[in-house]
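Write out this protein's structure.
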Amino acid sequence: MSNQSNKFKILCLIPARGGSKSIPRKNIIELLGKPLIAWSIQHGLESKYINRVIVSTDDEEIANISREYGAEAPFLRPADLATDASLDIEAFFHALSWLKENENYEPDLVVQLRPTGPSRRIQLIDKAIETILSDQEADSLRSVSVAHQNPFKMWFIEKNYMLPALTLEGVKDSHSIGRQMLPIAYWQNGYVDIIRPSTILNKKSMVGDKVIPFIIKEAVCDLDYLDDIPKIEAIMRNNLDNDESASLNSERLPV
């Protein structure tokens, strides 16, 4: 469980709508014997710094399962904020506004743990929290990985012809130069994102103007299709073994 004596109010908010096109009822499908969403709830509860875990959902069954695994579900998200076209900012703005109006609760940080990424390690979540707490100018932190395909070599097709997606200023045909000469690009991987509430409520943004890169160097898996499950479960088993070993020598770091 999280340490309730933490001087910061750090909220873990897990967005989990009921609908899913790729896998029906995806957020409650079982992985390693637990509903998918239970793993993100567990990650939030076991963090050294997170002291509240809330699930934002439009679905009563997901809300009940979330409560069974230790999260709060104090409200149901309006259906019009839980469609295929709904944006993260809508769900997070609604949740923070509801908590302020109904509980007078205003967190210092909001940690987003997407339920579709169950293969996280708690140590990295805590390291991300420590990182943004040490930078008061940052609006947010977003986890990224080095992109497997460089966007400077990508193209759009318009009216039967191709246009480069990106170009290097002052470099002719930059899409054709060696990969090692191109800037390193990073892919936002959804492992962990942390946002200051003022960024959401005042700037109406999930990132703001100053975004800390939190680089993940290990495998990152996101559940999109049923075929992904065996690979994700294998990574989860490995991470669980590593977390158990690390816990024997772990201690709370000062903030």
